[in-house]
Design a protein that fits this description.
There is one protein chain. This protein is about 45% helix and about 15% strand. It is α/β, with parallel strands linked by helices. Strands 1-5-2-4 form a four-stranded parallel β-sheet, with helices on both faces. It has a three-stranded antiparallel β-sheet with strand order 3-9-8. β6 and β7 form a beta hairpin. The termini are far apart.
Length: about 220
């Protein structure tokens, strides 16, 4: 029996962290959002035409984002890009998104739906922040805004059958879009990075739609579409 929390009745779904992969119904596309700072780092890597391995170095950038991406990719066969799943419809396409590439990711999803010729289910997973010393997952405003940016961009492309959780994130981004830079620099995650002299990373991560790079997980690698 379907769980009331699996959001299976909706095309666009949202839940937090690693446990979201188990709570949400299986989706055709999984979008992992870890704005500060796994997604933003990977976007920059892919933008340079390079790739990143899902190894210890990736986990050092951001444990939770890398962990969610690796687990999502492990849910299906090795990925070689959206066009490679034609013969394996159960294999999820795993994308990395942030504020910097929200529209580019939404367009890649729309293109994949058109290629499949049917409604394509999408799980948006904001990674949240894992506390130190085994503390539980905490809400991260930057990931809510990053997820909301993707959902807002999907809506403008006609992909708008969203769960209440996803719709709320989209509305949060729309209402707070003009304050994104301030919210990221003032957030707990932002302040933590600023204390480490990484303010420029936080400000860069807050640049909305500054990149066309769309990172996709292919097995143990993250490359550009």
């Amino acid at each position: 029996m379907a769980s009331p929390f699996d959001q299976s009745r909706y095309q666009v779904r949202l839940d937090w962290g690693l446990d979201a992969l188990a709570r949400l119904a299986p989706a055709d596309i999984v979008v992992v959002v870890d704005v500060l700072r796994f997604s933003s780092t990977v976007i920059d890597v892919v933008e340079r035409g390079e790739e990143m391995m899902l190894d210890d170095a990736a986990f050092a950038v951001s444990l939770n984002g890398a962990r969610v991406a690796a687990a999502a990719a492990a849910a299906g066969p090795d990925q070689t890009g959206p066009h490679a799943v034609e013969d394996e419809p159960s294999a999820p396409v795993v994308l990395l998104a942030g504020l910097r590439n929200a529209s580019a990711v939404a367009q890649a999803i729309a293109d994949e739906q058109e290629r499949r010729g049917r409604r394509t289910s999408i799980s948006i997973i904001p990674a949240g922040e894992l506390g130190h010393g085994g503390a539980p997952l905490r809400f991260a405003v930057e990931d809510l805004l990053g997820a909301g940016a993707v959902i807002d961009a999907l809506t403008t492309r006609g992909i708008d059958h969203s769960s209440p959780e996803a719709a709320t994130a989209g509305e949060a981004f729309r209402g707070l879009r003009g304050a994104v830079r301030h919210l990221l620099t003032a957030s707990g995650s932002g302040q933590e990075l600023i204390e480490k002299d990484l303010r420029s990373d936080v400000v860069r991560a807050a640049e909305i739609d500054a990149s066309e790079a769309v990172p996709i997980v292919r097995g143990a690698r993250i490359v550009g579409i």
